Amino acid sequence: MLDEIKPPEEQCLSVDGSRRDFLKKSAVAGAGVAAIKLGGAVPLVASEPAIEGGIPVEKLTVKLNINGKEHTLPVDTRTSLLDALREQLEMTGSKKGCDHGQCGACTVIIDGRRQLSCLTLAAMCDDRKVTTIEGLAEGDKLHPMQAAFIERDGMQCGYCTPGQICSAVAMLEEARNGEASFVTENINAIPRGQKLSKSEIQERMSGNICRCGAYPNIVAAIEDVQAGGAK
Ligand code: FES
Ligand code: FES
HEC states along 197-228? Predict the structure, then answer.
């Protein structure tokens, strides 16, 4: 009698065919989700997913503009921007800390806004402008934020630093555009080009974790750039 009872996974799958069919359908559904992006249609290709290592893989081709350079990449629909950068383009400046949107180590700038690349599908970045830590310097000339981090010793192990710097650059731009934070006192009267207090900087950078605790120096570096009129 007990032998006839199938494990829950098989009970579920036996309603609609084999495990492989189930996985194929899941992959197609995943591709549908990945196809939703801002600003246009993602060029989906194969309707029947290829099987790689026994797993159905739905691929599509995306055109990524990374640091001003176009890259045309075949990606699995489930590929994060972070993995596309690190694994396919070998741009390892953006770091993988948690891979769950909790540490900020993977922060990049997409169309001028800071974003967590581990939570962003590469398929959603088709034709969007991505800036990574590798794209901030101009040749040998460091971005003012990079120079300030060095000057202020805003790092110890350095693992969080690329994310901190990308985040800080875009954060100052948000402040200049008059965007509020959780600690902004009067959200009805935010001046454009506002100068941020220490607590404003701390709050706005709170999504970027530094396990080494270099926070005071990071804030000092950002204050320096703000005082000197960062780009
Ligand atoms: S790796 Fe993206 S938030 Fe931690
Ligand atoms: S410098 Fe080590 S985690 Fe920030």
Answer: CHHHHHHHCCCCCCCCCCHHHHHHHHHHHHHH
- State the distance from the centre of ligand 2 to the C-alpha of 106, rounded, in angstroms: 13
Question: Any idea which fold 144-228 has?
Answer: DNA polymerase; domain 1 (1.10.150)
Q: Is 163 in the pocket of ligand 1 (CB under 6 A)?
A: no
pLDDT digits (tens, 9 = 90+) for 107-165: 999 999 999 999 999 999 998 999 999 999 999 999 999 999 999 999 999 999 999 99
Tell the residue nearest (CA) to atom 4 of ligand 2: 210
Grouping H, G, I as helix, E, B as strand and the rest as coil, residue 136 is coil
Q: Is the CATH code 3.10.20.30 the one for domain 38-132? A: yes
Is any ligand 1 atom within 6 A of the Cβ of residue 98?
yes
Asked, colleague to colleague, whether 38-132 and 144-228 share their fold, the answer is no
Cα(80) to centroid(ligand 1), Å: 11
